[in-house]
Amino acid sequence: MITPMNATIKQLAIIGPTASGKTALSIEAAQKLDAYILSLDSLSIYKEIDIVSAKPTLEERAGIVHFGIDHLYPNEHFDVTTFVRLYREVYQKAMSEGKNLVIVGGTSFYLKMLIEGISDLPSISKKTIETTAQMLISLKDAHQFLHNLDPIYIDRIAQSDRYRIEKALHIYLETGMVPSEYFQANPPASVINGSLPIYRIDIEREELRKRISLRTRLMLKEGLIDEICMLEKKYTRSPNCMKAIGIKETLDYLDGIYDKAMLEEKITTNTARLAKRQTTFNNSQFEGVVKGSVEELKRILL
């Protein structure tokens, strides 16, 4: 399917809880639509985190070019702005190459942010970067400094959240505006170009629990423990991704807190709880969604 350069491409998003079948459906849709896939997932974005993220293998990707997978190393920081940049790059690439786009989101929060948009940040000077670095020597003092200026905004940021404290300092030192004022003067605008129909996978809770349990068992069989050992040795336990479900439980197992049977149960239970939170979020945060089972959505999409 060739899309003229001056036209908009066809794009759609597929959402659903973890282990609901999003990956396979997105690949089939991308094959049908001659599309690229942009993955919005907080673990698959990392290189070397393969088993625990349940990212599709090269074979499973069936020749479909994926973006948002294996994009960063585990010790590199990312946030929603990473996906904003990725979306813009992928959209332009799809436009120039006559492709369409399938967005598949395990972390639907990022999809919501693409739709609702984020505020553009000011360019940060070298002087501001240096001043901020000095202030961040004491996170507690930096947090208090910002609290005195903009208490309502800063109270939503933990004293240990270095990244968001740094961003707030950058805004204030560069513009002279406290974050609340800056974001009011620079409201967010949607990042999405054109229309974006959203398809949501609905799945019975008991069926989903069975799928999660099976996937956990397969992860352990495929070498989950060895993968986490490698990640800990190479990156330590400091990166945020080392606190993800599947990783933190395996680290507890390595610490001798529980045995292998309990490890499997803990991962399954915590993943099921995550799936419940994802379902609640997906049900409440998106409008005009096409809902159905994987088979029903296949009939609609394919």
How would you characterize the overall build of this protein?
With 302 residues, the chain is of the alpha/beta class. The protein folds into three domains: 11-118 and 189-201 and 288-301, P-loop containing nucleotide triphosphate hydrolases (Rossmann fold, 3-Layer(aba) Sandwich), CATH 3.40.50.300; 126-185, Histone, subunit A, CATH 1.10.20; 205-281, Crystal structure of tRNA isopentenylpyrophosphate transferase (bh2366) domain (Helix Hairpins). The chain has helices spanning 22-33, 80-97, 108-116, 126-135, 139-149, 151-154, 162-175, 179-185, 205-222, 224-235, 247-254, 260-285, 294-301; strands at residues 11-15, 35-40, 66-67, 100-105, 198-201, 290-292. Strands 3-2-4-1-5-6 form a six-stranded parallel beta sheet, sandwiched between helices. Helix 5 packs across helix 7, helix 10 packs across helix 11 and helix 11 packs antiparallel against helix 12. The longest helix has 26 residues, at 260-285. The two termini are 15 Å apart.
Note the topology:
Layout: E1 11-15, H1 22-33, E2 35-40, E3 66-67, H2 80-97, E4 100-105, H3 108-116, H4 126-135, H5 139-149, H6 151-154, H7 162-175, H8 179-185, E5 198-201, H9 205-222, H10 224-235, H11 247-254, H12 260-285, E6 290-292, H13 294-301
Parallel strand pairs: 1-4, 1-5, 2-3, 2-4, 5-6
Helix pairs in contact: 1-13, 4-7, 5-7, 9-12, 10-11, 11-12
